[in-house]
Structures are given as C-alpha cells and as structure tokens.
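In this section we walk through a basic example: taking a raw amino acid sequence and producing a predicted 3D structure, encoded as discrete structure tokens. The instruction is simple. Fold the sequence below.
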Amino acid sequence: MTQALIDPAIELMKGQRFGEALHLLRRIIEQDPSQWNAWYMAGQCCRYLNDVDGAIDHLSRAAKLKKDSPPIFLALGIAFQLNTQWDDAIEAFRRAIEIDSDYELAYNSLALTQKKRGELDKALHNYDAGAKALARRIAKAMRNSQISSILKHRDTAGSLWTEYAMYAALYLVSSEQGINAIAWPTGQQAQEEERTEKHSGLYWFDAPNDKGENVRLFLPNYFNTFREQLKRDPGYSNLIGNRGTILELLGRHDEARQHFDEATEFQP
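The resulting token sequence is shown next.
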C-alpha cells in the first residue's frame, strides 16, 4: 500500500506540487512510521513550502531511521541553516562528509554556513575541499582504456582546473601499489601525442624509468577528459565561484578574479 502512494508522491514533487505530495507522504508515515524515505521526502516538501520547523522535524526522523544517507544529512543541514541553527547545520554537513568524503555538495553547504558565521578561512578551506572531492570522484570514475573517447586540448581562461586534475592524479596513484612516481607530458610531448594518438584513448600508462622505478605518465587525454567532466558538472563552477567570493571578502582580489573567470568559463 505504501509503495502505491510513494510513486505518485514522487511525481507530484517532480511537478512541484509539494502540498499534495506532503498529504500522500503523511498517509504513508501514518501507515508505516519506519519508511525513512517518506520522512525524507516529507521534509523536503516542508522545506519548499517554507515550513522550516516541519522540515527539521521530518528530516531528523529520516536521519534516525537511515543513518548512512548523505543526502538526508545534507537536507537536514540545509534546514538547520535556513533556521540559523549554525552549529546543528555544521554537525549535519560533517556527518554527510563522514559518510561520503567525496560528497562535494556537503562541503559547499558547510562552507556557506561558515561564511554566514564569519569564519572566512574555514569557508575558503572547505570550498577548496569540495572541489577536491569532485576531482576525486571524476578521476575515480575514469576507466583507463584504449577505446575511451579521445578529447583534444582547448585553451581556457584559467588554469585552476589543472591543479585539481594533478591533485586527482596524485590521489589515484596513492591508492595503488607498485607506482613509485608520476609524470606529466611536456608541452611538446602533449602536442605529439594529440597529433599521433599513439596511446589511443588511454588516460595514463606505466613504464620503468632509467632508475628502475615504475612511473605513471598521465597523458593529454586524461587532462582533456578531466576538463570536460568539470565543464559538464555545475558543482565545479559553483564551488570555484563561491571560493572567489571568500577571496574577495579577504581582500585577495587578484585570486578572486581568477576564480570568477574560471567559474564563468566552466558553467555547463
């Protein structure tokens, strides 16, 4: 019976008919209070209906029933944030990150809360941590295959993204055994690789150097693919733009402008 009401409630929420969806979800909760997803969706309905107290109540119940769901703790943190309960919001966002360290949305909301509290240095750190989380997620999803699409170099207004690409490469190697060092192609090597496509769609390959160390060389296709993945994900532009705002507030205007320019270019 409850599933018969869940599906229509989801459709009503998709149509932004939150009051009607909430009515169905409360019927589900009355029939079966253990339905954490009904509590979660009801909390989201309350939030969009500007009932923040109701959102906190429903989402808190959802969090107790489902203790390992980052989206629930993110939603709960946002509700606390809307209610200016800063400490509770921070605790909820940190719980979401504890469950999933690559959950960039929680870093973004944590940093926003810290900004609202005037903790600009902490906000600056966590916007960067969010971009790194996104970088890890993108790199971990890459499958190093010769049949991967080959993407080409294109000029960008900023170069912050290359720092996150290199960070993600270091992260990938740190979790593997047998790799002693990593390397990047020189500009000339990158041009030659793009011209000849010698390694097809590979993102990297491993080879020994003259010292007998196993070195992983990250190819142009890794960087070009990473760039385009960032371009497709609105999270990167949002995090970089928000970090630029903090830099501006801290008086670091040149760095702020660099972030704003890159955020504009990387909007999907």
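Looking at the output, two observations stand out. The two ends are 41 Å apart (CA to CA). The chain has 13 helices and three strands. In the next section we compare this with other chains.
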